[in-house]
Design brief:
With about 425 residues, this protein is of the alpha/beta class. It folds into two domains: about 350 residues, Rossmann fold (3-Layer(aba) Sandwich), CATH 3.40.50.970; about 35 residues, no CATH class. Helix content is about 40%, strand content about 15%. The chain contains 14 helices and 15 strands. The protein is globular, with a radius of gyration of 21 Å. The two termini are about 35 Å apart. The relative contact order is 0.14. The protein binds thiamine diphosphate and magnesium ion.
């Protein structure tokens, strides 16, 4: 029986996209739904959005429309998604500092608009794959907050059953969470190939960083995607640094959206969730209509260090970080839109923020209460293959490590 329960329901006009262990996704909707959500917002209640001219820049491409209409509830949902992702990352930060999370941990505080904008523009048939900075994407694709935090703490209820950790998170239609810089890019082209081969009109969002963008395998993937007209949307999250190296010190040109050469590109303001949403919708339409790949660049910024072991202050100034936080924050930006368009009052937004904090705190407590995986060999070798597709034996580092899947024991065979 699958341990991953997929729940996707519409409650009170809000779609829960959370699949979860022991079902907490329904709670997310109920916790954050206010009486206004359920009673006074009609799902056909449209609002017009006018993006600034600076939202997009095209390369061999006509930019998406700056003015569009969308449902008010979509804007509210994006706000709630972003505050949940940020609270979850802040909880991970605190748990790490309390030594309850060990090992690698890369947070995306500041970059939330990208995962949220993309997910609100696509559907469950589309696929997403990214690097180690993956918690927000895992949540948006359907993993519960609890299962993500439990994974970070090495609990059996974690999204990878407590054996993966920060960089190895998966959900339906989400192919990780990949720790090897750039390695996911050709995998994403492969996903897009499979989607096209199966005749689906879906697309793959294939994400990587500015640091990864110079790797040869990125250009190999571009080539094949264009050659075979794959519905692959290459997405460079340009957060201005690869670890402690500024983009201009590692990239001969930092116009990442132009680097597909023969593939059209689009630069998107990655600090504005509405631009991320509109740009992602445009990209999905483009690729699913058979136009082949696109290269997107989301210009963004991470507020914290590269990982928990980097304070993030030695290669950039405090003023730079402060400037981005105070002038470009994606959550504050959408809040201003909600207020300006009378979609929510200041008091309602405060209540959403409070509910998000309470919800994440509860999820932390539940995850902390869960047990780690038992120290059993069959648990160690579980999930290496999809059940039923195992090879007879898996060789380890030494002969004593050779595992017999059928009999769930070591063979002790000497090679
Ligand atoms: C093949 C490989 N080389 C080096 C590393 C070490 N490493 C981890 S993250 C990173 C920087 C990547 O920066 P970027 O692509 O901009 O992503 P960001 O961390 O900014 O999201 C490096 C060099 C690695 N994990 N894999
Ligand atoms: Mg980077």
């Amino acid at each position: 029986m699958s341990r991953l329960v997929n729940i996707s329901k519409v409650i009170g006009g809000f779609k829960s996209n959370s699949s979860t262990f022991k079902g907490s996704s329904l709670k997310i909707v109920r916790t954050l739904a206010t009486s206004k959500d359920a009673e006074s917002i009609d799902s056909s209640d449209l609002v017009s959005v006018d993006l600034p001219q600076t939202s997009f820049e095209g390369y061999n491409l006509d930019c998406p429309e700056l003015s569009f209409e969308t449902e008010k509830e979509t804007l509210l949902k994006m706000y709630k998604d972003m505050i949940i992702v940020r609270r979850m990352e802040m909880a991970a930060d605190a748990l790490y500092k309390a030594k309850k999370i060990r090992g690698f941990c890369h947070l995306s505080v500041g970059q939330e608009a990208i995962a949220v904008g993309i997910e609100n523009a696509i559907d469950h048939k589309d696929t997403v794959i990214t690097s180690y900075r993956c918690h927000g994407f895992a949540f948006m694709r359907g993993a519960s907050v609890k299962s993500i935090l439990a994974e970070l703490m090495g609990r059996r209820t974690g999204v990878s059953f407590g054996k993966g950790g920060s960089m190895h998170m998966f959900a339906p239609g989400f192919y990780g969470g990949n720790g090897i810089v750039g390695a996911q890019v050709p995998l994403g082209a492969g996903l897009a190939f499979a989607q096209k081969y199966k005749g689906e009109r879906s697309v793959c969002f294939d994400l990587y960083g500015d640091g990864a963008s110079n790797q040869g395998q990125v250009f190999e993937a571009y080539n094949m995607a264009k050659l075979w007209n794959l519905p692959c949307i290459f997405v460079c999250e340009n957060n201005k640094y690869g670890m402690g190296t500024a983009a201009a010190r590692s990239s001969a040109t930092t116009e990442y959206f132009k680097r597909g050469q023969y593939i059209p590109g689009l630069k998107i303001n990655g600090m504005d969730v509405l631009a991320c949403y509109q740009g992602s919708k445009f990209a999905k339409d483009w690729a699913s209509q058979g136009n082949g790949p696109l290269v997107l660049e989301f210009e963004t910024y991470r507020y914290g260090g590269h990982s928990m072991s980097d304070p993030g202050t030695t290669y950039r100034t405090r003023e730079e970080v402060q400037h981005m936080r105070s002038r470009n924050d994606p959550i504050a930006g959408l809040k201003a839109v909600l207020l300006e368009k009378n979609i929510a009052t200041e008091a309602e937004i405060k209540s959403y923020d409070k509910a998000a904090r309470k919800y994440v705190d509860e999820q932390v407590a539940e995850a902390e209460g869960d047990a780690p995986p038992e120290a059993k060999m069959d648990i160690l070798f579980e999930d290496v293959y999809v059940p039923g597709s195992e090879i007879p034996v898996l060789r380890g580092r030494i002969s004593d490590d050779t595992w017999d899947f059928k009999n769930k024991t070591f063979l002790n065979k000497v090679y």
